Amino acid sequence: MSKSNEIMDEEEHIIVKEGDKPFSFSFFNPEEKKYELDEILGKENIVIYFYPKDFTPGCTLQAEEFTENYKKFKENEIEIIGISPDSQESHLKFREKMNIPYMLVSDKNNIISKKYGVYGLKKFMGKEYYGVNRTTFLIDKKGKIIKIFQKVKPAGHSKEVLDFFKSIDQ
Question: Is the entire prediction scored with pTM above 0.85?
Answer without folding.
Answer: yes
